[in-house]
């Protein structure tokens, strides 16, 4: 089609349609279709007859190779861990997250640390004035770092400024939704603008050997396109997670061409900015109380790091016709599955009771290895009997009631032993026993229930019967 026209583009996933619709057919988002000018096709396309001229590239063989690209360590170990060991020259990173979560703060700390190590860094902001950035840097104690600042939203001016700044090593663009290209008629923040600006910045990174870090955020009403539109264009995608009411922030890698995925870095929000948490397990368990029913310590794995967190469950009588199921930090659908297996295979009937499940510390758990810990917390809260002191639990639960082994069991047990735990309830088979832990292996979920309930009279391991 040689002529340009109008099309309706979803601002969440980028799907184009010929007419407006209240709901996007591709991603299901509501009220996300915005009218944009369709790009003009060039004459002589793939099916055209026009003569095409171009440089013929040379194919390379699969054998052979080059040395791995050098890394630029930022000096912030938690950030470098998530990035795969440091920043790679010529790569593009995307840091996404909700507004106010701390994206600008952590990136300002990263470029300031790199600049102090002798790297030429530029921080380009489309949301704040230069004086605002200086004030924030002063509060963080970074006022003396030799970082180049620029407040600009025009992409052409940004690229011209970078060309005139000499050899730049790292560039931060905060945020990608505020930048615009003059040749695109859409407003800044739309899918067309975000895709075009990101494409130019990625080409600049690859062509000049510069590390470009893009910041993307999503508003509550969904009017500004989220960073998912350009995830396939960049090399690394990092997401900043956490609750504003909580002091802990999780930097999670969901895509990384130069390192492991699902790696996390833990930070704590303080008056002096984001400080590293080198031992997250000890922090997440720092306020844990002993001898409380419904609390279980789960030994999980986040990327390559073993992590111990507390899972809390509360079972209470419901005054509603439909009992409530509230989950924070875990999958609500998986909670329903675990409850169904407990009822069908173990005879634990929750009935008209409200179920509340919480992962302490604001961390979100995605792995199925937390099934057994959640089940133990539910049963403990149901019968009001606390688990033994110093016990960690992990394992996956099947629909038939079996308990399946999980990966990296030995690393989980070593982390638990390092933090002073003495017992572990784990799936049978597939693991080596830790010398300093008393390990109990089970193959059926009913075995765990029997250990808590005992002989059915409400007594277990010396605990008196309590109010159920």
From TrEMBL:
<keyword id="KW-0234">DNA repair</keyword>
<feature type="binding site">
    <location>
        <begin position="97"/>
        <end position="104"/>
    </location>
    <ligand>
        <name>ATP</name>
    </ligand>
</feature>
<keyword id="KW-0547">Nucleotide-binding</keyword>
<dbReference type="Pfam" id="PF13481">
    <property type="entry name" value="AAA_25"/>
</dbReference>
<dbReference type="GO" id="GO:0016787">
    <property type="term" value="F:hydrolase activity"/>
</dbReference>
<dbReference type="GO" id="GO:0005524">
    <property type="term" value="F:ATP binding"/>
</dbReference>
<dbReference type="Pfam" id="PF18073">
    <property type="entry name" value="Zn_ribbon_LapB"/>
</dbReference>
<dbReference type="InterPro" id="IPR020588">
    <property type="entry name" value="RecA_ATP-bd"/>
</dbReference>
<dbReference type="Pfam" id="PF13541">
    <property type="entry name" value="ChlI"/>
</dbReference>
<feature type="domain" description="RecA family profile 1">
    <location>
        <begin position="68"/>
        <end position="218"/>
    </location>
</feature>
<dbReference type="GO" id="GO:0003684">
    <property type="term" value="F:damaged DNA binding"/>
</dbReference>
<comment type="function">
    <text>Plays a role in repairing double-strand DNA breaks, probably involving stabilizing or processing branched DNA or blocked replication forks.</text>
</comment>
<feature type="region of interest" description="Lon-protease-like">
    <location>
        <begin position="354"/>
        <end position="468"/>
    </location>
</feature>
<dbReference type="GO" id="GO:0140664">
    <property type="term" value="F:ATP-dependent DNA damage sensor activity"/>
</dbReference>
<dbReference type="InterPro" id="IPR020568">
    <property type="entry name" value="Ribosomal_Su5_D2-typ_SF"/>
</dbReference>
<keyword id="KW-0479">Metal-binding</keyword>
<dbReference type="InterPro" id="IPR027417">
    <property type="entry name" value="P-loop_NTPase"/>
</dbReference>
<dbReference type="GO" id="GO:0008270">
    <property type="term" value="F:zinc ion binding"/>
</dbReference>
<keyword id="KW-0863">Zinc-finger</keyword>
<keyword id="KW-0346">Stress response</keyword>
<dbReference type="InterPro" id="IPR041166">
    <property type="entry name" value="Rubredoxin_2"/>
</dbReference>
<dbReference type="InterPro" id="IPR004504">
    <property type="entry name" value="DNA_repair_RadA"/>
</dbReference>
<keyword id="KW-0238">DNA-binding</keyword>
<dbReference type="GO" id="GO:0000725">
    <property type="term" value="P:recombinational repair"/>
</dbReference>
<keyword id="KW-0227">DNA damage</keyword>
<keyword id="KW-0862">Zinc</keyword>
<dbReference type="GO" id="GO:0005829">
    <property type="term" value="C:cytosol"/>
</dbReference>
<dbReference type="InterPro" id="IPR003593">
    <property type="entry name" value="AAA+_ATPase"/>
</dbReference>
<protein>
    <recommendedName>
        <fullName>DNA repair protein RadA</fullName>
    </recommendedName>
</protein>
<feature type="short sequence motif" description="RadA KNRFG motif">
    <location>
        <begin position="255"/>
        <end position="259"/>
    </location>
</feature>
<comment type="function">
    <text>DNA-dependent ATPase involved in processing of recombination intermediates, plays a role in repairing DNA breaks. Stimulates the branch migration of RecA-mediated strand transfer reactions, allowing the 3' invading strand to extend heteroduplex DNA faster. Binds ssDNA in the presence of ADP but not other nucleotides, has ATPase activity that is stimulated by ssDNA and various branched DNA structures, but inhibited by SSB. Does not have RecA's homology-searching function.</text>
</comment>
<dbReference type="InterPro" id="IPR014721">
    <property type="entry name" value="Ribsml_uS5_D2-typ_fold_subgr"/>
</dbReference>
<keyword id="KW-0378">Hydrolase</keyword>
<comment type="similarity">
    <text>Belongs to the RecA family. RadA subfamily.</text>
</comment>
<keyword id="KW-0067">ATP-binding</keyword>
